Amino acid sequence: MGGQNSTEQLTSLGVAEAGAGLAAGRFTSVDLTQAFLERIERVDGSLHAFLRTTPAEALEAASEADRARADGDSRPLLGIPLAIKDVLMTAGIETTAGSRILEGFVPPYSATAVKKLKAAGTVILGKTNTDEFAMGSSTENSGYGPTRNPWDLERVPGGSSGGSAAAVAADEAPAALGTDTGGSVRQPAAFCGIVGLKPSYGRVSRYGLIAYGSSLDQIGPITKTVADAALLLEAVAGVDPQDSTTLPVDAPDFSAALTGEAAGMRIGIPHEYFVEGIQPEVEAAVRAAIEQFASLGAEIVPIHLPNTELALPVYYLVVTAEASANLARYDGIRFGLSVDGETIFDHFRQTRGAGFGSEVKRRIMLGAYALSAGYYDAYYLKAQQVRTLIKQDFDRAFTDVDVILSPTSPTTAFRIGEKVDDPLAMILTDIFTTGANLAGLCGISIPCGFDAGGLPIGLQLLGPSLGEERILRAAYAYEQSTDWRLRRPEL
Amino acid sequence: MRRGLVPRRFFVADTNFIQSREVVVKLTKDEVRHVAELAKLQLSDAELEEYAGQLGQILTYAQQIQSVDTSAVPPTPQVLPLSNVLAEDASQASLSNDQAVDNAPDADDGYFRVIAVFDDSGA
């Protein structure tokens, strides 16, 4: 590798920039992949964004991409290295979902999203850390130890896709895949000062995504720029015969939505999202972003989402009920940890009691309680009914506005350990993000400032189901008119 | 109306406000033990104690949905406008037998080996 393409320069590149460099022959995919692997080697000891890297496979895939390029292949993602959240199955590569119960599990097949990215010529650098089974908002619930925020190593990167977000923010990967069940792509992107996109429910196949809340889970890109999010979404979106909950629509050319214009867009500001309790610097940054949109010619429209306060309790009843059913599969018989018992039921109890971490057990218990005889109607059914009201709020709002703007999270990144003993305080950090999952909307978090301590602040833009082009357009126009994305953490 | 019952400071890190709610949910250790059995989780005594408190706290927080009138509201179990997604009834490539049992803690001749589900005493 020549001095002109030092490791430092290569690892600062995002997807589109790296693609342009590869296309122009300034460096090869092997150069790029080697640079990221070296960067991971150098900084991940202090971050722990990766659960494992796959250097041999990565360099082999990079060589293959370079050969394909020499033969005239010019697909946009050819030779681009990526990191993958460890809840996504990768054939032949250990996949644990951050849980000790899956330690050593090597999947026989890959998630559709991973398969699509491989078919697009990308290079997988490794698997990133996550709250166990994606249950958490800080990545502290990983069975393999927490990930640290590259902006302040004493703070959490957010979660559950904290490993993916920290990896991208720390230049360990140009981009990554995460998953978002109640905010798990958007909130860590906000805490790490980068871009996170949650696609509409049904936009991206969940096949091979280790299930948490099946009616809420979506796979989404975590990137340095809005344009990169559009590129990755295009690669993973689309109907999949392996997932009957994918919407039967082809992925449009999302990049074409990036016009740089927000003039004439109607941007809804929900009254209920700006009440007491938001960190003042977060509110100030988001209010400044609203002004910025107005100066770009967007129309700012005050709106009401009257059932906002109910989204979190509904979310926690629905997601834990679904989780308690989904996690019944960890029985110590077909895969994963196995702890012997006297009887088959004792075997189940011992295996699950030893293999799951405390947050996972707590959520399984809550879900089992909400589904149990005598409580089903009062909790689970009731939550599903209130979910209808929450969805109707959004449906009504989107008849009047193109996108809805809010903070991504009420605070910037909190300290490691600060909320671990208070599960309720932890779940309350998801207040602005869970509504999108309950209603099946799309959403994106983009950087919109920094607090006094130098921690990034995220701005959330929500769109209706299949409204990704709108949120990408608005996000890109804002991003291009500001320079928040240029500030990088020092490591 | 419901709105009057809902505290404004609903997402701050301070969770003391839930003490003021009308309905406080308390779970006994026996109830927690029952749920743990439903979920097939072996829990220590300390865990039973801990979860009794925490689940009560979270369920108390969740009580606010009880004050919403949903008598005329249908449930939303999932959000897609799809129903009866059908696949062609045709065989497709699948995992081999070896692949299927490859991750099994205890496999024998292509089968998963398990402890007998029914005891053979005939009782």
TrEMBL record, chain A:
InterPro entries in the record: Amidase, Amidase_CS, Amidase_dom, AS_sf, GatA
Domain Amidase: 31-472
GO CC, alphabetical: glutamyl-tRNA(Gln) amidotransferase complex
Pfam families registered for this protein in UniProt: Amidase
Molecular functions (GO terms): ATP binding; glutaminyl-tRNA synthase (glutamine-hydrolyzing) activity; transferase activity
GO biological process, one term: translation
EC identifiers of the protein: 6.3.5.7
Subunit structure: Heterotrimer of A, B and C subunits.
Family according to the record: Belongs to the amidase family. GatA subfamily.
Protein name: Glutamyl-tRNA(Gln) amidotransferase subunit A
